[in-house]
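input
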Amino acid sequence: MMLQNFSSEAAAGLEEQRMLVRQARKEILQRHRARLGESAEPPIRVMARIVQDLERECVERNFDQAAIRHEIVNRTIGDVNVRLINECEGEAGGPEDFRLLGDELGIALPGEDLNGYTASGEGYRWLREQMLEAERHLLSKGHDLRVYDIHGVGNPVLRGWLADDMQHWGLTASAQHVAVGLGATDCIDKVLRGFARLSRLQSQPPGAVLFAAPGFNMPELQATSHGYRLHSVNTRAEDDFKLTGPLLSQTLEENPDINIVYLAVTNNPTTFAYSPDELSSLQDVIRRFAQQGRRIYILADLAYVGTGPPADDQARMQSLTSAADIADQMIYVSSWSKTHTLTGERFGWIVFGDTELAGKMGSSWTNSVASLPGEWQLRFMAYHALFRENPQLIEKIRKLYRLRRSRLREQLEKLDKEHRLFEQIYLDDDVTIYNWSKLREGEDSFSVFEKTGLAGIPGSTFGYSDDYIRFSVGILPVATD
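output
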């Protein structure tokens, strides 16, 4: 059944419009529930499509935009849209006027309206000037990005800068340890592709990858496409959904084909991060198997290292990089997508613990992107200069995340009092841009969306139970009303 069209003039006011959006929300969820068994789409895409269809339908019915914004809140997407930031703590234009980030990061166009703040465009212009300087610097070193790069892993100047950055975490590296890619996901794909190729050169299958659930599932799809077997291990709530040393040891003993462990050091979706002792425990297991002649690589995803308290990040990373005897079995994946709110820029890189392995992996880069785009490398270098000269920007982004996480927890607690949705609203480790919570019996992501308008992602998206749900604070600010 479809509601008749209503113009904003025909509505009695915003509250009536909101009621109409709620009704439309209920109707579209009923339609999708009826077709649940017919869809082969993953849960994350189902929910994203529901939100998109509902927003489109509300526009077609001429519902008031304010009512739509109140009653449809997309918390499925993790990416931060700096153009939508409206938080201003304290004085306008002050240090905690987060609206300025779009201007300060060089994303906002000159004269662009950022929720009441007019962008100067200084950051936008500065980045382009810095790209010019970067290209001149590269040419002076004999590197011309306008010709084909036979190696494809990025220019050695940029790679050297990124290697130097790792010293902050206690890891000594050079440009030869680093390969640059189009985001962390692209880098992970290239590493898995490279290991698969090395196995086939020895007439062997690629082996298997261990994934801890709940966890980011894109690498699982990549591993499958490159011929790996998958071993998914369910973690426990009492362990804060983290892989423990005993669980890792047992899984490796039972599955001798595992040669790669994918480890999200700071976890999406659970918002928990490994402590130094927990990381040391995992490395002890890898060390013991290495002493028995079995080489197992840790593919350490650092995508959210940098979203939390700096001292905590420093401690966990120093623990991760201090195991000299298994350094050649460590592979570090980094990105500025989440930590620096630069998802669309696709800045990612790999640091290999072993330069010999890094050299063997080079074919994965040339056989995929062939040669990394010159303009992209210059842009990456410009941003590297921006953050080197303005480290306060990184702290400002951390503060924004902290503010949004706190506001989201408060909002969920308020909604829980009204609708009794959650068995537990988990506190996080003051990291990532998510909230991971357990639903009461009988609730799921659909019922939460129907009752509150908050669209989250079901736990099955991350290889876990739909008793859990993940919300993002990323793309949209958290309403305080």
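quick obs: The chain has a mean pLDDT of 92.
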